[in-house]
Design brief:
Elements lengths: L1 H79 L26 E18 L34 E5 L4 E9 L5 E9 L17 E9 L2 E7 L25 E9 L2 E6 L3 E4 L2 E3 L4 E3 L3 E4 L6 E10 L2 E16 L4 E17 L4 E11 L13 E4 L4 E4 L1 E14 L2 E13 L2 H4 L4 E16 L2 E14 L4 E14 L1
Parallel strand pairs: 9-17
Antiparallel strand pairs: 1-2, 1-3, 1-23, 3-4, 4-5, 5-6, 6-7, 7-8, 8-13, 9-12, 10-11, 13-14, 14-15, 15-16, 16-19, 17-18, 19-20, 20-21, 21-22, 22-23
Keywords: Signal
InterPro entries: DcaP
Protein name: DcaP family trimeric outer membrane transporter
């Protein structure tokens, strides 16, 4: 009995001892878990703070980027809103930066030209054009043979010629400063120089200078088209010029000032004279030769005013010049004032047609007409006097486009000269005229194929006439 009681009493005691031993361990386990959880929470809070900080930094970068983009767009809008004079119409550069080393910012470089091949079949009715004569490569009215003035009086056979000497290339530099000032330069060459080889094997031709000038705002200095000439009104032709008989056509060195439609220039002077020689034995005049004189004391003065619009173009120009011969060997020393006026332009007659025209008149200006058909004046060696030659020249051309790829031109040109036959003789040119028709086909941009038929007549002072017929084909690739 006592033993049972004793056993019963021992069980609660053991339980109490077990609780006393386990309870502290359980309490310690709970404390460690709480600390681990607290550490984990702290780490999570740190990571959240890091994410928030990173997001704030990214937002700052985004804000700065948006600010920079806004500034760039504002600068672009300001540049686009600048006056058109800063970058002239049609002069916008095709490159962002200059390809010329050392060029100032805002400078662009350009290269252009064309490759042109010509194929000509020519027949003259009153004699032959000389071998390798310039008139066999292009139409020169003053070289048309006339019986008694270099012509035999017999028709020639058909002379065939082919060449590529009118191919050309040009280099240009243009600069626009931030304040709108403009400057630039251009040089252009072709291969219309003297033969360096022959047609037997090499067909080599010399490079010739066409244009070489610089400009600064309204000023131009160098060699280019005369201010007396209106290049924009010349109709399209397969021939090098086209309306040669009646067109003002001169390139020379000059200083020019342009303001809007007005321009004035001082240009290189050159006087051409003729002196006939009478042979009493034969009772005939000898064929005179043109004598050039570069003894001029004053430049040729030219002034022009032009208008243009959707209707076309129109311009009027004047020329005042000094004719002068000065040869100490012969004793020639004479001067004379000469001049003339010209007007012309292009009239747009709808989408497919245009009319090109020019009328020129004056005295002592013949070298400006038709590549120098005759001389500016006659020189009277007995009186030591210059007699300016009067001239009236004109052309008219009609252009019609059948389609964007096919077009045609019909051109008539003429000039008449008032010579003093007692000085020049009766074998000098009295008048020249020509008519031509052509067709051009453009199979793709920059490629032209053309054919042209022309007929011209030259008359000299004694009434004799000579004629020329020509069929010409051309191919041209422009770049």
């Amino acid at each position: 009995m006592n033993t049972s009681v004793l056993k019963t009493a021992r069980r609660p005691l053991a339980a109490a001892l077990l609780v006393a031993l386990v309870a502290p361990g359980m309490a310690w386990a709970e404390t460690a878990r709480e600390k681990a959880l607290e550490a984990r929470v702290a780490e999570l809070e740190r990571q959240v703070q890091l994410l928030v900080s990173t997001q704030q930094q990214q937002q700052g970068v985004i804000t700065q980027t948006q600010t920079d983009v806004g500034q760039v767009r504002a600068a672009q809008a300001d540049l686009a809103a600048r006056p058109a004079a800063t970058v002239p119409a049609g002069k916008q550069p095709i490159q962002v930066t200059s390809i010329t080393p050392g060029a100032t910012p805002g400078t662009t470089f350009k290269f252009g030209g064309f490759i042109k091949a010509d194929f000509l079949a020519t027949r003259t009715g009153d004699g032959q054009l000389a071998d390798d004569a310039t008139g066999r490569a292009l139409y020169l009215p003053g070289q048309t043979p006339v019986h008694g003035a270099g012509g035999s009086g017999r028709a020639s056979d058909v002379d065939y010629n082919a060449h590529a000497k009118f191919s050309r290339f040009n280099l240009g530099v243009d600069h626009v400063a931030e304040n709108g000032d403009k400057a630039g330069a251009m040089v252009e060459m072709d291969f219309f120089g003297n033969s360096l080889g022959n047609q037997t094997a090499t067909n080599t031709y010399g490079v010739t200078l066409r244009h070489a000038y610089m400009y600064w705002n309204n000023w131009l200095a160098g060699q280019t088209w005369s201010n007396f000439m209106d290049a924009a009104s010349i109709p399209e032709a397969v021939d090098f010029v086209g309306p040669t008989d009646g067109v003002v056509f001169v390139r020379q060195a000059q200083v020019r000032y342009t303001n809007g439609g007005f321009s004035v220039a001082l240009e290189n002077p050159e006087t051409t004279t003729l002196t006939g020689t009478y042979n009493p034995g034969t009772g005939k005049w000898n064929v005179p030769s043109v004598v050039n004189s570069d003894r001029g004391s004053l430049p040729d003065l030219t002034a022009r005013y032009g208008w243009k619009g959707d209707w076309g173009t129109f311009g009027v120009a004047g020329l005042v010049r000094q004719l002068k011969v000065d040869n100490q060997a012969t004793g020639a020393d004479a001067t004379k004032v000469a001049g003339g006026v010209t007007l012309g332009g292009k009239w747009v007659m709808g989408d497919s047609d245009s009319l090109h025209y020019q009328l020129t008149g004056g005295e002592g200006i013949s070298r400006y007409i038709g590549l120098g058909i005759t001389a500016d004046s006659g020189y009277d060696a007995i009186r030591d006097e210059i007699d300016p030659t009067g001239v009236v020249a004109a052309y008219v051309g009609w252009r019609h486009a059948f389609s964007p790829k096919l077009r045609t031109n019909l051109i008539y040109a003429r000039s008449d000269y008032d010579n003093d036959a007692s000085i020049t003789g009766n074998l000098v040119t009295k008048s020249v005229q020509s008519i031509r028709g052509n067709v051009f086909y453009t199979p793709m941009p920059k490629v032209d194929i053309g054919a042209e038929l022309m007929y011209g007549v030259r008359e000299i002072e004694n009434g004799q006439k000579g004629d020329i017929s020509r069929l010409q084909f051309t191919t041209k690739y422009s770049f």
